[in-house]
């Protein structure tokens, strides 16, 4: 979901093999109530299941923001709960590439909210016994 409250995932394609052992979890998931519940809870997502012989199972997510390529996620040898978790992660993402900041971010401009401090109540004394004594 983006900051405006709109879901960005538009299509989910679940590809699996009908006979392969690595697709067993996907086949069980597609027959389960978890899949039906996920589809009912997310009517904004077009979900398709494709049988591809001799291939490991994958889930492909296509997002609204077109500059990004579809996200491919391998679900080889995963159970129903792990596949449901993958679907929820794909639904909650925005489709952009995940980048890791290698260095800390510094700025020359101070925040208008002020500098963050770990302990704002450093000078305030708090005694739990006073709170308990005042409670009815």
Task: Write the topology of this structure.
Blueprint: E1 9-16, H1 24-31, H2 33-41, E2 46-51, E3 58-63, E4 71-74, H3 80-92, H4 128-134
Parallel strand pairs: 1-2
Antiparallel strand pairs: 1-3, 3-4
Helix pairs in contact: 1-3
Summarize the structure in words.
- The chain is built from four helices and four strands.
- The chain has helices at residues 24-31, 33-41, 80-92, 128-134, and strands at residues 9-16, 46-51, 58-63, 71-74.
- The radius of gyration is 23 Å and the shape is elongated.
Q: Which sequence of SSEs, written as H and E, runs from N to C?
A: EHHEEEHH
Estimated share of beta-strand residues: 15-25%
Mean pLDDT: 85
Rg over CA atoms:
23 Å
Poorly predicted sequence stretches spanning 5 or more consecutive residues: none
Q: In a few lines, what is going on in this structure?
A:
The model has no long low-confidence stretch (mean pLDDT 85). The chain has 136 residues and is of the alpha+beta class.
Features of the shown structure:
136 residues; alpha+beta; four-stranded mixed β-sheet; elongated
């Amino acid at each position: 979901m983006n900051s405006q409250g709109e879901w960005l995932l538009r299509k989910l394609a679940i590809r699996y093999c009908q006979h392969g052992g690595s697709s067993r979890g996907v086949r069980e998931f597609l027959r389960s109530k978890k899949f039906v519940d996920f589809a009912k809870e997310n009517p904004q997502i077009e979900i398709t299941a494709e049988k591809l012989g001799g291939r490991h199972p994958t889930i492909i997510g296509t997002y609204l923001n077109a500059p990004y390529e579809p996200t491919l996620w391998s679900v080889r040898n995963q159970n129903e709960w792990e596949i449901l978790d993958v679907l929820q992660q794909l639904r909650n993402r925005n489709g952009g590439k995940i980048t890791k900041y290698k260095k800390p971010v510094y700025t020359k401009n101070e925040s208008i909210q002020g500098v963050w401090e770990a302990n704002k109540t450093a000078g305030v004394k708090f005694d739990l016994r006073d709170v308990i004594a005042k409670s009815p």
